[in-house]
Each structure stands twice: as C-alpha cells, then as structure tokens.
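Run log, item B.
One chain of 645 residues. Sequence copied directly from the ordering sheet:
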Amino acid sequence: MSSFHKFKHFVFGKPIHARHAHHERLSVPFGLAVFASDALSSVAYATEEVLLVLILAGSLAAYGVLPIIAVCLAVLLVIIAFSYYQTIHAYPESGGTYIVSTDNLGPYAGQLAGAAILIDYVLTVAVSISAGAQAVVSLAPQLQPYTVPMACGAVGILCLMNLRGAKESGIVFAIPTYGFVILILILIGKSLFTGITSPAVVPQLPAWDGNQLHTLGGFLLLRAFAASCTALTGTEALADGVKAFKPPESKNASKALVMMVTLLTTMFIGLSWAAWHSGIVPIESGTEGYRTVIAQLAEQQFGPGFMTSAIMIMTAAILFLAANTAYADFPRLASFVARDGYLPRQLGTVGDRLVFQNGIILLSFIAIGLIIKFNADTHSLIPLYALGVFVAFTLSQAGMFRYFRKRRWMVLKRKDLEADDEHPTASPRERNRAARKFAIQSYVSGFGAVVTFCVGIILIYTKWEERIWIVIIAMAILMTIFNLISRYYKSLAKKLTVTRADHLPEIKPTTLLLVPRMHKGILLPIQYAKAMSPDARAIHVALGKESAKRIKEDWNNFGVEMPLIILDSPYRSIIQPILDYVDHVRSMDAKRVVTVIVPQAVPKHWWQGLLHNNAAILLKLALGTRRNVVITNIRYFIEGEQENQ
C-alpha cells in the first residue's frame, strides 16, 4: 500500500465494502443526533432573535409577547411535523420535499424545492457554526477577534468527520446533542422552580429609538414571529434522510421526528418563558460584554460556576455540530437532484466510506465563503435563513395535499384498486373508510400549506430590508443552473445515443513514443509501442545539436527497429514541437488515431518525484481538446519493483 493510501485511510478511515452498507445505518437515538441537531440547537438563538425585535419597542407590553409567540410557533411546528410524518410513510425511499414536490406538483416545483432546501442547508452550516463561535466568545470574550478563523476551522473539522461516514459521525454527535438537551431541560426546570417561588423580574429595556416601525403593532409582532421561525429550520431533515435509518426505516424515522418535535417544543417554550420571567435583555453581538441569552439565564440561575460553564460548553458544541444536519442531508439531496440531471453527476457518487463525499466538500467550501463574507455574525445571517425552509414546507405540504387527493379519487373511482395493501378485494365500506382517511389527511396538508405560505409572505414582508431578497435571487440563479445542466445532459444523451445507422468507424492507428534519452526505463515502452501499432515512431525533442547527436548514436548502437524522429526546438520548448507534430500526423488522414506514449519514472520515495520531468501532465492538458488523440504513460520503477503497485 502506498504512503498516500495509508495516510488517506488514517484520516478518512478504511474503505467500507458495499455489502456492509446496512451496518452504517443509524438507530433512532443516533439518527436523532445526526438529523435533529440543527432543529434542537436552534433554541440557543431563536429566543434571542425574537427578543432583539421585541425590545425595539422599548415597552414591557411588547416584551411580554415573547411567551405567546413561543406558543404560536409550537402550534406551527406541530402542523409542519404532522405533514412530514405523513411524508415519511408515503415516501420511505427518502428525498423528502424534493421528491414529493416533483412527483405531485411537477419538475419545476421540484426544482424550486430543491433549490430552497440546498440553500437552506448551506445557511444552516453558516448560521450554526457562527452561533457556536459566538457561544465560545460568551464564555471567553478574549477570543472575539478570532471568531471567523474559529468558525472556518469548525467547518473543516465537520467536513473531515462526515467524510469518515455516517455511523462514526452519529456516535460523535450523540454526546453533545443529548448533553445539550439534558442541561437545557435542567436550566428550564430550575427557572420554573425559581419562577414559582419569586415574582417576574422587570427587564431594563432600552429606550424606543423613535422609528415608527418599532412601535408595538402588527408589523413588529409579525417581525418577531418571523424571527422565531428560525427554530423550525431542520424540521424537514428527517424526511430527507429516511434511508439512513435502520429497518424499518419509516417507523424509526417517524419515531425520531416525534421525539424531535417534543423536545424542541418543550425547550423553546420553556426557554422563552424563563427568559421573559427572568427579565433577560439580549445584547448585540460584537459589543463589549456580549453574552447570549442562554448565558445570561444560566448565570442568573446557577451563578458563574460549573453549571453555567457546562451549559455554555454544550451549547457551543451542539451549535458547532448542528451543522451536521446539513452535512447529513445536503449531499443526499444533491445526489437526488444530480440523479435527475439537474446537478453534476459527480454529486451522486458514493465514496469508499459510503458517503457522498463530493457533496460534503462542496457544502464546506460554500459555507466557509458565507462565514467569511458575513464575518461569522449570526444576526446578519439569520434574516436570510428561514425563507428557504418555508418555501420547502409549503411545497411539501401542497404536494402531500395533491398526493392524498389523488389517492382518495383512485379509491372512490376505481373499484379494482385496493384500499389497503393487505386487502386487495376491499369492500365498498372499506373503500369509503379509506377515502375519508385520505380526505382528512389532504385537508391537514392543505391547511398546513396555506399556513406556511402565509408565514413565508410574512418573512419576505418583514425582512425585505434585511436583505432576504438575496435568498430569492439565489433560488432563481440555482434553478437557472439546474435547467442549464439538464439541457446539457439531455443534449449530450441525444448526441451519444447509438442508432441502427451507426457503425464501428475505420481507424488508422499511429503510436508516438516520447524518448528523452536512451536508458533501461525506455526499453519496455519501445516494445509496447511496437506491439500497439505497425506505424510506431519514436519522438525526441532536441534542445540542442549535442542532444540530437547523442540520441541518434545511442538509438543506432542499440539497434531499435523503429524510426526515430528528431524535432528541433529553437525556443527550447518540449511541448510545442510535439503538439505541432501530432497535428501534422492527424492532418494527413481523417481516420488517423494517434496514441502518444510518455514514459514516467516512479522513484522509491514520493519526494524524489519532484526531481523528475513530469511531461505527461502538461501534455495531457495541451492535447486534451484534440480529436482522435490518446495520451498514456508507462511507468518504470527506479531501485526495484515497489510493493502493491
């Protein structure tokens, strides 16, 4: 095994055989940690985002709306989760919103859903990592100048961990996920106990800034509710990753969904009530003495001791690792889109660790770019965050509405259709019962689609000045890219499709062997070139008269039965004379196929390769666009044969 492969296996892990793929599936606890960490971690900043809006009014009445918004959001979460519960069972092969939208609403709806979710996953990484970096700054303010490098480093670590495989990442991410949940529930419990025994704390609110849009009214309340919707991001992840669970996949994925909704609802309502009752006022990030709302609440309840530090450490850990939801789903969704021909096919390739490695790497590069662009500022990134996911919510539930309506129509109109897979000869009564069930499910999905559509409009209306229009433009650009790629692949397939009129072409092969000088390593390539074609020629680029004279003498003395062609190079270029000669040979006959053989030395140590002339690389680049030209290299080993080559 080469040093490169040893290093690769050490960093990314040993390759996993395809027959062991089922061992890489996730149980419910690990699946919850991998796919729900984004949604669960959002409680670390969702309450803070709502308060940052409400305190603009500078009134206790506006501040007191926080618990009501939390309850409204919980209701919305239940509606969305119920729809995805149906999706998991209706589409157990995964794909979630993208597949549902494509199957029931058409390819353009599917493209819009795919674009919205892919953008949302990229923002998930950027927001979660940035929030994690800010949590670290809350614990150690002296690290604030290093926020961006810290966030970029965290993305790199996540990328590496996910390249090692789903099972290993699930084990690693379970500890901070469940640690965070347990500590937050303890914090809520302590706050409830304190709240029962003491009256609510009056917050020290900043004064109203005079902006009429910041007075307590419909716009401010809608804006605050829109800010709370960041807590719903990641809800769709479980529906997108059903196939990552152990069998029965749908049952286990739906269990994880119910657990996630229960925990998320409890934590968000609990933290919102605790922050309101404790009079917590958020601090703008980047200001001196910045601490998150959770940091303030923990310090108020437990003091500046072990529990506060533990809560902040686990908060930072899950915020860093919450991006793993995107790492689990972005590559998988990208593979579905690539399978349909809307993204490069390389994104559908599974690596030797049974992960979509190209999607993981692509996600990392884009997220790092966003973090650098927005200076790892959560409050700048979050306004862009929730729109994509609500577009996905709306399309998913609209798709499920149509799915259930079609099922209902088929049951009522086609008597031969089985109302239940276990009852192929269903009676009229059973068909009517099934039809009523599908009708109820369609009404629930339709209601959810209307609600999430309205929330999406609210997001656009209230966050337009916060540059949410960037997301709309990004979705339009991505859909344009989808269509351009699809058009190219369709055109390519049409051009390459074999018909009865096609036939095997007649070719005239010519082999050109590059000979830098006469030595033992050139002997095998000479024999190989002669065996390949009756028209085999040796090519030597002479950089001076002495080199041309020497190669002629050595060639004739050895007695090689192959013509040696000397190409002069007055400008001391090795590549250009070869290109000119190849073009000359090709121009002599349209049926001519030229194979260029480049001998390549393989030294004992990798660093010794830097001391050799790597002409093959430059030739491949130069000749790559020429028709009927094949470039190959024959390796010869220095200091004996190497093992495992």
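Observations after the first pass:
- The mean pLDDT is 82.
- The first strand starts at residue 508 and ends at 514.
Flagged for discussion on Thursday.
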